[in-house]
Design goal:
Largest sheet: 2 strands, antiparallel
Number of helices: 2
Strand content: 15-25%
Shape: elongated
Radius of gyration: 15 Å
Helix content: 10-25%
Strand order of the largest sheet: 1-4
Number of strands: 4
Length: about 60
Amino acid sequence: MIRHVTRDTWFMTSDGKTHLIRQGDRVAIYPPAIHKDPDIFPQPTVRITSPAQLHQLYYFFVFL
């Protein structure tokens, strides 16, 4: 997933380093890597197999 940066933003990594992401830059996000992070998703290994299960585990937003 690629996004364009709309304003200058400072980004801090987990080891404390900061990086300037400039307006107009493009950033790539790899959702599968984020979905396996237990700091973000409390049950990263749970596999969602039905819509009912999705509603039990998470709230989600639809982006149009």
